[in-house]
Structures are given as C-alpha cells and as structure tokens.
Amino acid sequence: MDILVVDDEASSRTLLAMMLGSLGCTVAEAANGKEAIEAVRSSAPDLVLIDQIMPEMFGYDAMLAIRDLEGFDHLPFVMITTSYDVQERQDKDELKCCAFIPKPFSREQLFSAIRVATGRKFPPNPPTPA
Largest CB tally within 10 Å, which of 24, 100, 114, 116? Predict the structure, then answer.
C-alpha cells in the first residue's frame, strides 16, 4: 500500500513512516498541505494520513483541494489531529474524510483507522507472535 504522510512535524512523519514502512508500505512524506497536493499529483497514493493544524494550508483544506483533482475524488484520508473542531465536524458528518484519530494515538487506533478508510485488512501481513 502506498501511503502519503502529511504533517508539519518532522518527528511525526518519521515515526509514521518507520511504523508503516516496517509493515511493507511505501511511504512518501509532505510537510504541509501545499506539498501534499503536489505529492498526490506525482505519486497517486492509496491513502493519505494528514494532520489538520499545519502552516500554509490546513489538512482539511488540502483534502478538499486534493479531492477536486481529477481522479482523486474518492482517495481515502485519515485525519490525525489534536483539534477538537475537527472531531466536532466529524461527529456532525461535515468532515468528509474517511477516518479520524486524535493525537496522541496508539498503533491499534492507527491501524483501525486505516482499515476503516481503505476497507482493507491492515496491517496486510501482521507480525507473528514469538
């Protein structure tokens, strides 16, 4: 699965990239919403994990701009944020992302949100217990 991770915090992007990469996912990164739009155009990911509060363009606005691009109107998103405004919009069904998880989150919350957003088994090849 090709995943784009969008977050203005480099440490958050690195952590998600390492976690997802260890499961066999191909991960691209963007530091803000404008970079995310360009990354989607160039790499056509299967899923976007996006932070809400970022400089230059909020995650929600970037998601709407990406969904306006030809061929990306059904691209699944997982919104990852500390913003309660996003959670309230999600609860009112005003937010058209596929899944939402608040920061901080657990691996299980992340994996569950990816399953919801993509409709796919995730992780694809879960590690076997030792």
Answer: 114
